[in-house]
């Protein structure tokens, strides 16, 4: 073989041994913003504009939350009827977060240094030299980000990042103010004739009679007049939902509980007194009601007392009777105590 063919043969042999050899990095090509200061200024203004839009969207989020009625419904083409407040909050918060992300990406792709660097893998334990190198690289990265030389970007970014958390702070309003009287009164006490409210089967939507509640069954009830087309339906059902169970009168341990029942039928709040989960697991033999969230267990034959779990107080009982004219079960007024989770204002 001639000498001029030896390099070609060696190359072919190496390619055959390692067909997936690392080709290495291509030569670095500068971007337009690297060589044209006008283009860099234009990119700076674009990034800043995105951060400013984010700030305006955050302000719009807060304004929407304060000014738009939570029950207001609007009709949007293709989407139908939607809640105006939810739509406004979603759009403004989405724009605020998107503009921060888009601004950061545009900043990185147009103004930050984009030199390609290969870093070989090393042991997990870094040597002192490597730690010093990391600090130098961090400092170099801070310099390469040009944040020190681009005050407009720095100020608008800080403004956008400082304002967007206010969205979460404003939403904390839904955790307060203090419960006050919100849990002390339910739909049972607001409606009905002469303090009596017909009990409706939550599943069928029809009034309940005593014979509809058989021993061993668990029936879900709600007050008459609380329908799904009511704009307060979800809010009120979260407090007014009840469970009805038939016990033998001699199984009821409390005199007050017996007086508040009708022929052994007792009605209790469906809302767990721990953190407000809906209860729906009934053990017929023990008359225990189990909350599926944290396993709080209540004895329906003993004033709904807590027998296990983290709940701190008994389930509130609803006093019931029967309408002699219609034969329907009715609630006598409201719960005597607040429903749902315990809170520091109960006392």
TrEMBL record:
Top-level taxon of the source organism: Bacteria
Cofactor(s) needed for function: [2Fe-2S] cluster
Gene3D superfamilies named in the record: Rieske [2Fe-2S] iron-sulphur domain
Domain Rieske: 239-329
Broad class of the protein's primary localization: membrane
SUPFAM superfamilies: ISP domain (SSF50022)
Subcellular location: Cell membrane
Transmembrane segments: 47-67, 87-108
CDD domains noted in UniProt: Rieske
Record membrane topology: Multi-pass membrane protein
Region (Disordered): 1-34
Keywords from the UniProt entry: 2Fe-2S, Cell membrane, Disulfide bond, Electron transport, Iron, Iron-sulfur, Membrane, Metal-binding, Oxidoreductase, Respiratory chain, Transmembrane, Transmembrane helix, Transport
Function field: Iron-sulfur subunit of the cytochrome bc1 complex, an essential component of the respiratory electron transport chain required for ATP synthesis. The bc1 complex catalyzes the oxidation of menaquinol and the reduction of cytochrome c in the respiratory chain. The bc1 complex operates through a Q-cycle mechanism that couples electron transfer to generation of the proton gradient that drives ATP synthesis.
Family: Belongs to the Rieske iron-sulfur protein family.
Protein name, as recorded: Cytochrome bc1 complex Rieske iron-sulfur subunit
Organism, scientific name: Yinghuangia aomiensis
């Amino acid at each position: 073989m001639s000498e001029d063919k030896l390099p070609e043969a060696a190359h072919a042999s190496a390619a055959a041994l390692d067909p997936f050899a690392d080709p290495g990095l291509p030569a670095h090509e500068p971007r337009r913003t690297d060589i044209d200061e006008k283009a860099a200024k234009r990119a700076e203004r674009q990034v800043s504009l995105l951060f400013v839009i984010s700030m305006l969207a955050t302000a719009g989020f807060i304004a929407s939350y304060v000014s738009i009625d939570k029950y207001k419904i609007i009709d949007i083409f293709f989407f139908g009827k939607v809640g105006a407040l939810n739509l406004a909050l979603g759009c403004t918060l989405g724009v605020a977060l998107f503009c921060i992300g888009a601004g950061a990406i545009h900043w990185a792709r147009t103004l930050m240094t984009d030199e390609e660097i290969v870093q070989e893998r090393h042991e997990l334990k870094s040597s002192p030299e490597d730690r010093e190198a990391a600090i130098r690289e961090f400092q170099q990265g801070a310099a390469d980000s040009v944040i020190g030389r681009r005050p407009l970007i720095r100020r608008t970014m800080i403004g956008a990042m400082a304002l967007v958390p206010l969205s979460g702070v404003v939403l904390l309003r839904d955790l307060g103010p203090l419960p006050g009287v919100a849990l002390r009164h339910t739909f049972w006490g607001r409606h009905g004739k002469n303090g009596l409210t017909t009990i409706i089967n939550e599943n069928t939507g029809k009034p309940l009679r005593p014979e509809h509640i058989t021993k061993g069954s668990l029936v879900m009830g709600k007050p008459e007049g609380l329908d799904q087309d009511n704009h307060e339906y979800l809010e009120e059902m979260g407090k007014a939902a009840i469970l009805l169970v038939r016990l033998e009168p001699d199984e009821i341990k409390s005199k007050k509980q017996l007086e508040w029942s009708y022929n052994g039928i007792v009605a209790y709040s469906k809302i767990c007194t721990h953190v407000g989960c809906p209860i729906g697991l009934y053990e017929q033999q023990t008359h225990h009601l189990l909350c599926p969230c944290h396993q709080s267990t209540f004895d329906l034959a003993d004033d709904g007392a807590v027998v296990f779990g983290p709940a701190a107080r008994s389930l509130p009982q609803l006093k019931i009777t029967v309408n002699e004219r219609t034969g329907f079960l009715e609630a006598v007024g409201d719960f005597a105590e607040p429903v749902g989770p315990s809170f520091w204002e109960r006392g």
